[in-house]
Structure formats: C-alpha cells, structure tokens
Design a protein that fits this description.
Blueprint lengths: L2 H24 L6 H28 L8 H19 L12 H25 L3 H26 L4 H26 L6 H15 L14 H8 L1 E6 L2 E2 L3 E6 L3 E5 L1 H13 L2 E6 L5 H6 L5 E6 L9 E3 L11 E6 L16 E5 L3 H9 L4 E5 L2 H10 L4 E5 H10 L4 E7 L8 E5 L3 H17 L1 H16 L1
Parallel strand pairs: 1-5, 1-6, 9-10, 9-11
Antiparallel strand pairs: 2-3, 3-4, 6-13, 7-13, 8-11, 8-12
C-alpha cells in the first residue's frame, strides 16, 4: 500500500470520528482549544491503537489464509464502508460530557472499523508503525476540526462526512482486490496495457525525425556531431533581436529570433551559439560558412538567393507592413510618394527597406546606414528627414521617443509573406530539417508568442 493510499484510508477511517466530534461540538456553548484537543486525543489515540491490535491478531493466522487474504481485505473494507454509509442516515445522540465514562465508549465505537482494517494490514505487508501514526494524527486533526464545525455550523456536515468515509473504504477495498487479481494474471492489468500502448506508439515513431530526410550536403550531420548550431543574428532589430541588460553592465542578445534559434538547436539536440554581427554581414557569413544559418527578419528577395538557401516562411501572422518614421512635427506632411522628392530617407544597408525605398520613392535621396540604431540616431540628429522601417520596430521606436518621432501617413505597397532563414548553398538536407521545425512553429503559432514576450521584455528594459 502506497503512502497516498494510506493517507486516503486514514481520512476515510476518520470520518466516523469526525461525525461524532461534530455531535460533541453541538453540545458546546463555547468552544475551546482544550476541548478540541481532548476529543482529538481520545479518537486519534484509539484510531491508532485499534489497527495495531488488528495487525497483531491478523499476523497470527496470516499464513493460513494467504491465498484469500485479498478477498478478506476487500470484504471487510466494503462491509465497513457500506455500514458507514447506512449509519449516515441515522440520528446520533451524544451527551455533552467529556469525562472518561463518556469518551471511552465513543472512542471504542468509532475505532472498531480501524480494528478490522488493522487485520487487513497483516495481509498487505503494510509498514504498521507508519500506518498507525498516520491514522492517529489524521484522526486527531479531523476530530478536533469536527468539534469546531459542530459548534459553528451544526450537524449539516455529519451525513456527508459519513458517506464520504464509506465510499473511500469501498474504493480502497476494490483497489486492493483489483491489484491482487491483476498481479496473478486473472484479469487484465490496465497499467501494463497503458505501458504496452505507450511503447507501441513510441515504436511507431521514427527514432530520429531527421534521419529519413533526403537531400544534399552534410551540414546537418556536422552540426549534430559538433553539438553546436552557430546562429548569426543582428541584435539591432527589436523585438526580433536586441541587446538586453543583464546584471551590472552586462548585455545579452535576446528576442523572438533568438528564441527561434534556440528552438531549432533544441530540436536538433544541440546547443545554440549566438553570433552577433552587422545585418549587412549576415548573408556573407552564411555563404562563407562562418555560421550555420542566419536569422535576421529576412524578407524573401531574389537577390538574397545568390549563394545561400532560404527557408520556408515563418512569422506569417506578424505583418504590420513597412512604414516611414519622421520628426513628430513633419510626419503628417508625408502622405504621398511625391512628398519625398528631394528628401533624405534613411534605410538599413542590404535590407528590404533599402529596396522598397529605391523602387517606390525614386525622387527621394537614399541614405544607407549599417544598423537600425544608427538610422534612428541620424533621424533624431536631423541628418535625414525620414527613415524606412518595419512597422513593429517603428512602433517600439515611437514609444521610446514619443515626443520626438511619429509614423507618417504614407505606407509602402508591400505585403509580407513572412520571414525566412538563410542557410549555406547546397545544404538541401539541412534546409529540409529547418523547414520541418518551422512547420511546427507555424502550426502552433509559436513565433507570434515569442514576439509578444520579446516585445514586453524590450519595453520593460527601456
């Protein structure tokens, strides 16, 4: 019998004493801790003593009834449980005295069930000291509480407590019988059936979901052999990738893209090595195999397919578009493409924003910068009139500088399909593994969750 089964049994046995304790509480005009402890000691003491007597008695003839001991335990517990339920409908008269003459017969009467249970302990090889201590302590606590409940609320809980106790004893009796019959192989063991079903499912699943992937290249095997996935990122694109303060003066790279990279590494069974660099250097680093892949909020463009492979899309649900930020006093003046004629518009080098400024604002004077942080500083310093940014990043910047910057009414004509990951050319098997993970990420909406968490972290850090 497990510790939890003993605990449940102790509670079930205590219900009889609990019901009588409620009746005792009804006779009190004023409750005291002393009276609660006195009732608890009487009932708890006898509830611990009786199972010990039953256990000693049961061990005397255990060897003679070993073949049917589980049936005896089942019968005793079921009879006791049914009897407790039957007595729940009977009114019980209890006098208000707390003398030995009054308490002794009550303590014996409420613990007779425990005597019978003690006999079953001999058949079940229960640790008797542990069992009687638990039964005694539980009964002490529940009986004391019963006195208080009876004094406060009357006998409304008595019947329910008796029924509950009876049901617990019946359940434990059935549990003991089932366990013995299952162990003897006379009935199916649901535990073994569950284990067999679980093992069947595990056998049906491939041991390694990436083992059967077809394609060229050895990068997937190289990464798993090395135990490390090298991930290139550009930590100037919050909330996808940014620096966050950690400790005194220390910075760590975090964001939704970092979480995605860690998820990829976990899926491959390796550790993630985050390699920060300038955005403009990411694609070249992948092509030169200085990193295994790059995650940088890349949009799919034809020129990016030169020298690298691009993954399937992820983050499809996050499409705020591409926007223009300007000084708060000038933002409203930029609503049409012609409003940008002769204006200095900043964009990050080798980015989607650089391409769409060239295509959709041909009369603007394009100024490329190495990072988004630099673009914001150029705008704040007045070195450019506006900057082109991803809408989500622009929203963060406007929150950080609410009195200096604002989004312009103008919007680029651009519909995002999501972002892609850059991987070395020729590594189609590795790309297949990455796309397999992205399929899971998209199916469960994980990237959107990571993005929201990163956004909250970014705003709290500023």
């Amino acid at each position: 019998m497990t510790i939890w089964e003993l605990l449940v049994l102790a509670v079930g046995l205590a219900m009889d004493a609990f019901a009588v304790a409620i009746c005792k509480g009804l006779t009190l005009k004023k409750i005291t801790i002393g009276r609660m402890c006195l009732v608890g000691l009487w009932f708890g003491g006898f509830q611990a003593l009786m199972p010990l007597i039953g256990y000693l008695f049961g061990t005397g003839f255990q060897s003679f009834i070993k073949e049917i001991d589980h049936w005896i335990a089942f019968a005793l517990l079921v009879i006791l449980g049914c009897n407790m339920i039957r007595e729940s409908g009977e009114e019980e008269e209890v006098d208000g005295a707390f003398s030995i003459r009054s308490m002794f017969p009550l303590a014996v009467a409420t613990s007779i069930d425990a005597l019978a249970v003690g006999v079953t302990f001999a058949f079940l090889n229960v640790q008797i000291v542990e069992a009687i201590l638990m039964i005694g302590i539980i009964t002490f606590l529940i009986s004391g509480a019963g006195v208080a409940i009876g004094e406060k609320f009357g006998s409304r809980f008595r019947r329910r407590a008796m029924i509950l106790g009876g049901l617990i004893l019946i359940f434990l009796g059935a549990r003991i019988l089932y366990g013995h019959l299952a162990d003897e192989g006379k009935i199916p063991d649901i535990r073994e059936l569950q284990m067999q079903a679980s093992s069947t499912v595990e056998e049906d699943l491939p041991a390694d979901p990436y083992e059967a992937l077809e394609g060229e290249g050895t990068l997937l095997d190289d990464v798993r052999a090395a135990g490390t996935l090298r991930i290139g990122v550009s930590p100037d694109f919050a909330p996808c990738s940014f620096y966050q303060k950690e400790g005194e003066g220390e910075l760590k790279v975090t964001g939704a893209d970092i979480t995605l990279g860690q998820h990829l590494a976990d899926s491959f069974g390796v550790s993630a090595q985050i390699v920060p660099m300038e955005f403009r250097d990411l694609i070249e680093a992948v092509a030169a195999r200085e990193v295994d892949l790059a995650i940088g909020g890349f949009a799919y463009t034809e020129d990016r397919t030169d020298g690298v492979l691009l993954s399937s899309f992820y983050g499809v649900g996050d499409d705020g578009g591409q926007r223009i930020l300007a000084a708060i006093g000038d933002a409203r003046s930029y609503s049409l493409p012609e409003n940008f004629a002769g204006k200095r518009v900043g964009a990050q080098e080798n980015s989607l924003q650089e391409n769409i400024v060239r295509a959709q604002l041909p009369d603007a004077e394009l100024h490329t910068v190495t990072s988004l942080k630099e673009a914001v500083h150029q705008l704040l310093a007045g070195n450019v009139d506006a900057i082109a940014v991803d809408a989500s990043f622009g929203e963060l910047i406007c929150r950080r500088y609410p009195e200096e910057l604002a989004p312009a009414p103008f919007q680029f004509e651009y519909q995002s399909q999501g972002n892609v990951i850059a991987m070395p050319a020729g590594e189609t098997r590795f790309a297949g593994a990455v796309n397999l993970v992205l399929q899971e990420v998209n199916g469960e909406g994980l990237y959107e969750i990571w993005l929201a968490e990163a956004l909250e972290a970014y705003l709290q850090d500023r």
